[in-house]
């Protein structure tokens, strides 16, 4: 199975899950408790109310941009795994690509860590 076909299958699975989640009845969100300490002034209580309306902890999926980034990282990791496995590819080229991928993923990457994707 080619890497492009695998990525296409992953995208289809994620989209199918998103469609299924949209068709499911929404779950009741847990009530957000006011965690303001007793005797807090109105400004602190107002700040907590401002944060409460933006609570997304009950969302079944993250933001679309986050999903797109994870799919992009999976595709790049698969390509890098192929570079790591191919002895004809120069070591310096692989190291440079791993450095760039580390900058995107936000963690140190090597050929073994690519198995996490």
UniProtKB/TrEMBL annotation:
Signal sequence coordinates: 1-21
Region annotation (Disordered) ranges: 24-52
Keyword Signal: yes
Composition skew (Low complexity), residue ranges: 24-40
Domain of life: Bacteria
Keywords, ordered alphabetically: Signal
Entry protein name: UrcA family protein
Organism per entry: Thauera sedimentorum
